[in-house]
Design a protein that fits this description.
- It is a single chain.
- This protein is α/β, with parallel strands linked by helices and about 240 residues long.
- It has a single domain, classed as Rossmann fold, CATH 3.40.50.1360.
- The protein is built from 8 helices and 10 strands.
- Helix 2 links the parallel strand 2 and strand 3.
- Helix 1 crosses helix 2.
- The chain is globular, with a radius of gyration of 16 Å.
- Fructose -6-phosphate (F6R) binds next to loops.
Length: about 240
């Protein structure tokens, strides 16, 4: 794993954006994207740039079950607002959280087909404080593909900052599995802030274990971790 330590989130996001631009110039066509607070600065830099992504395909990691794309807490909406409105892709895929209400297996199978038809060249990831990647919580099988995830109380609590009421936070999500993520040719994972320091340390230096989903990245051939000094503070 290549590790880049930057002073702060802005410079880390700039590094990630440069990496994206280089990868696109070298032929990357399908990009896996993440939501959450981590990539917001990167997306901002992207929308302010002259990078043309109109020939590229994007595939997002996850979506809440039960939120319509126009719900301002859905990941569809997040991506529209932060990136797609200003920089539309040729096609953007996000899991279908509405189909998943009645048919989570069908919605998951659809998404696995989409990923099989559009192999991911470059996958962007954020890191959960408990080491999760996408909504793959500790204990998720490394062999998992797209599936419905019942969110843990911790994740519901962490995400409740975006909702008026903790009861409004959806209880499940449709999410790419670890095997889908590991199938990407190249992975860029970013983590900023001291609340990520433990997870970064375990991901990089701990044993590869399903108890720390991100530790699986130690087994991928082409991963770049971009962290600020605070998130890197527990690395030896
Ligand atoms: C987002 C996602 C999550 C986040 C992670 C970190 O699509 O799948 O795994 O990357 O929870 O969240 P933030 O960036 O808000 O700290």
């Amino acid at each position: 794993m290549k590790i880049i330590i930057t002073e702060d989130k802005a410079s880390g996001s700039k590094k990630a954006f440069d990496l994206f631009k280089g990868s696109i110039a070298n032929g990357t066509k399908v990009i896996g994207l993440a939501t959450g607070s981590t990539p917001v600065t990167l997306y901002q830099q992207w929308t302010e740039s002259d990078l043309d992504n109109s020939n590229l395909i994007s595939i997002n990691l996850d979506e809440y079950v039960g939120l319509t794309p126009d719900n301002d807490q859905s990941y569809h909406y997040f991506m529209q607002k932060n990136l797609f409105d200003k920089k539309p892709f040729k096609h953007s895929y996000v899991p279908d959280g509405i189909k998943a209400i009645k048919d989570p297996e069908g919605a998951s199978a659809d998404y696995n087909r989409i990923i099989a038809e559009n192999p991911i060249d470059l996958q962007l990831l954020g890191l959960g404080q408990n080491g999760h990647i996408a909504f793959n919580e500790p204990g998720t099988s490394f062999d998992s593909v797209t599936h419905e995830v019942k969110l843990t109380e911790n994740t519901i609590k962490a995400n409740s900052r975006f909702f008026n009421n903790i009861d409004d936070v959806p209880k499940s999500a449709i999410c790419m599995g670890i095997a889908n993520i590991m199938s990407a040719k190249e992975i860029v994972i970013m983590a900023f802030g001291d609340n990520k320091a433990d997870a970064v340390q375990k991901m990089v230096e701990g044993p590869v274990t399903e108890d720390v989903p991100a530790s699986v990245l130690q087994q991928h051939q082409n991963v770049t971790l971009i962290v600020d000094q605070a998130a890197a503070s527990k690395l030896s």
